[in-house]
Specification:
- There is one protein chain.
- The chain is mostly beta strands and 106 residues long.
- It has one domain (8-104): SH3 type barrels (Roll).
- The chain starts with 7 loop residues before the first strand and ends with a strand.
- Helices cover 0% and strands 49% of the residues.
- The chain has a six-stranded antiparallel sheet, with no helix packed on it.
- It contains no helices and eleven strands.
């Protein structure tokens, strides 16, 4: 996966194009992520004892991992991610534009 929990991402397609957000959860089997403030949906709540008024709850919905790019802190832009193996055998993610390290690979 080129995206990890805690990364800052930029949305490249859809209604939220151009927005930046922090990744809260990654779902690799589904190929989706959950990001703060991106792809907000309304969940309609039925009236009950805990919520006598009912109403609408706004929450984040998952979005496809193919619709986001990781933001490189050095470039300050959404970039494609490459992988390199260091001398000590650890695999790290690198920015394809400037070559800066983005952190350990998952």
């Amino acid at each position: 996966m080129h995206v990890r929990k805690g990364d800052t991402i930029e949305v490249i397609s859809g209604n939220d194009r151009g927005k930046r957000a922090k990744v809260m959860r990654v779902m690799p089997k589904k190929g989706q992520i959950l990001a703060e403030g991106v792809r907000q949906v309304h969940k309609h709540l039925r009236r009950d004892r805990r919520n006598p008024q009912g109403g609408r709850l706004q929450k984040e919905a998952p979005l496809s991992i193919s619709n986001v790019l990781v933001v490189c802190p050095k470039c300050d832009a959404g970039v494609r991610v490459g992988f390199e193996v260091k001398d000590n055998g650890t695999k790290v993610r690198v920015c394809r534009k400037c070559g800066a390290e983005l952190g350990a690979a998952s």
